[in-house]
């Protein structure tokens, strides 16, 4: 992998640190499934480097520094020569490549040993490969992250039979529905918590109603939220959990069960697509719920970008808080990536930071996230060594922990680093 990412390791100023950064195996603690071969072109390829949609994606995103960098790196990976790197050239090359060969081309130089996959894609799951399918791309068995809102919506649909026009909305019916739903939801979460293939849970409440999750609510408030959900389903024939009281209720149920079984709960924090309200996405909003469930490991995804310092602060003052620094690779420029790592390390203990790709749909997202993160880690930590903020050996341990050991310990994976990956 090193020739694609950096100069020769032996010629770098801190060779042991460079070798660790570019060669040490990694656990990807948060990602999503790849598209199937049949659906490999279902979404615009520009989505590799942007969370935008519509014209903002297909017309504007290609002019970002992140996009320019990705096209250059992928052109080198695919062996494109004598042409200016463009998305069209990349599309043509990947269309001419066998899909499994394309996946292996992206994964082999990534050094990813194990992936924790959130497959709660809701409405598009049929476009993607199964978690088990991904095992052929890694040397260790991939694990599942259960998205709780998807589970809850599926249970409601099953209970209501999809017959929206006949949904009862009397208070007696609502009480009965809430009780039955609670029993079914708790049983489902308990079953997942006991499943060895499930590494943890994830909430996208950030997208639905924001991260200011109330630690308490009355039963009457929860009943009214269910009534609102039923009326929404009846009038629109669409079931989407976007009632704050009900979303908060789900999160509290999962945090309680996950804490009892020592399963981490991941939260999307910070930037996402335009479905999110950015002012409600700062991880600082989670402070009350963090305090309410001190025995439940909580993972703040995506470094809370652009609220990275808030995420680092929470990890520094709460034992049960960890910070993932995915998504910014490859969505943010190289300078921005280095800034994210520096801001995170201003306060966050280095035994509580976790790397991920947030890879999804395209195998290229896994490759880019890996090579860019490794380069950024080396550049930031070698600078700290140069300025005598760290010894080289301390920096080496930080990278080993960030890429592999922190996640291995937190998710109780029991893995040993496979040093033959790269």
Automatic annotation (TrEMBL):
Q: Report TM segments.
A: none
Record-level Gene Ontology MF annotations: hydrolase activity
Q: Does the keyword Hydrolase apply?
A: yes
Which Gene3D superfamilies does this entry report, sorted A to Z?
Answer: Metal-dependent hydrolases
Q: Which UniProt keywords apply?
A: Hydrolase
Per UniProt, residues of the Amidohydrolase-related domain are 244-412
Q: Which residues form a coiled coil?
A: none
PANTHER family in the record: AMIDOHYDROLASE 2 FAMILY PROTEIN, NODULIN 6
Name of the protein described by the UniProt record: Amidohydrolase 2
């Amino acid at each position: 992998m090193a020739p694609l990412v950096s100069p020769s390791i032996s010629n770098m100023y801190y060779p042991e640190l460079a070798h660790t950064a570019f060669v040490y195996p990694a656990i990807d603690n948060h990602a999503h499934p790849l598209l199937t071969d049949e659906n490999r072109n279902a979404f615009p390829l520009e989505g590799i480097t942007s969370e935008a949609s519509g014209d903002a994606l297909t017309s504007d995103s290609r002019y970002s520094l992140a996009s320019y960098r990705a096209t250059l790196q992928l052109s080198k990976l695919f062996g494109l020569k004598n042409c200016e790197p463009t998305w069209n050239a990349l599309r043509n090359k990947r269309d001419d490549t066998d899909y499994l060969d394309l996946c292996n081309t992206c994964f082999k130089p990534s050094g990813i040993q194990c992936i924790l996959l959130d497959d709660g894609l809701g409405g598009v799951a049929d476009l993607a490969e199964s978690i088990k399918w991904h095992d052929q791309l890694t040397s260790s068995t991939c694990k599942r992250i259960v998205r709780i809102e998807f589970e809850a919506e599926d249970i409601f649909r099953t209970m209501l039979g999809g017959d929206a026009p006949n949904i009862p909305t009397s208070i007696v019916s609502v009480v009965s529905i809430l009780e039955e739903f609670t029993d079914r939801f708790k049983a489902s979460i308990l079953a997942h918590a006991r499943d060895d293939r499930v590494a943890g849970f994830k909430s996208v409440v950030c997208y639905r109603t924001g991260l200011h999750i109330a630690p308490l609510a009355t039963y009457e408030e929860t009943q009214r939220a269910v009534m609102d959900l039923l009326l929404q389903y009846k009038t629109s024939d669409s079931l989407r959990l976007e009632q704050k009281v009900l979303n908060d209720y789900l999160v509290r149920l999962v945090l309680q069960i996950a804490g009892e079984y020592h399963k981490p709960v991941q939260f999307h924090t910070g930037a996402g697509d335009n479905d999110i309200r950015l002012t409600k996405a700062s991880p600082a909003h989670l402070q009350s719920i963090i305090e309410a469930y001190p025995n439940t490991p909580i993972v703040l995804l995506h470094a809370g970008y652009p609220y990275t310092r808030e995420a680092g602060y929470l990890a520094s003052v709460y034992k049960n808080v960890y910070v993932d620094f995915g998504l910014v690779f490859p969505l943010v420029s190289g300078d921005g990536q280095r800034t994210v790592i520096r801001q995170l390390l201003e306060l966050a203990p280095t035994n509580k930071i976790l790397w991920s790709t947030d890879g999804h749909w395209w195998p290229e997202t896994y490759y880019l996230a890996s090579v860019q993160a490794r380069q950024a880690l080396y550049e930031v930590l070698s600078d700290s060594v140069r300025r005598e903020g760290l010894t080289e050996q301390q920096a080496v341990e930080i990278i080993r922990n960030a890429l592999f050991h922190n996640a291995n310990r937190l998710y109780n994976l029991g893995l040993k680093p496979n040093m033959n990956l790269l």
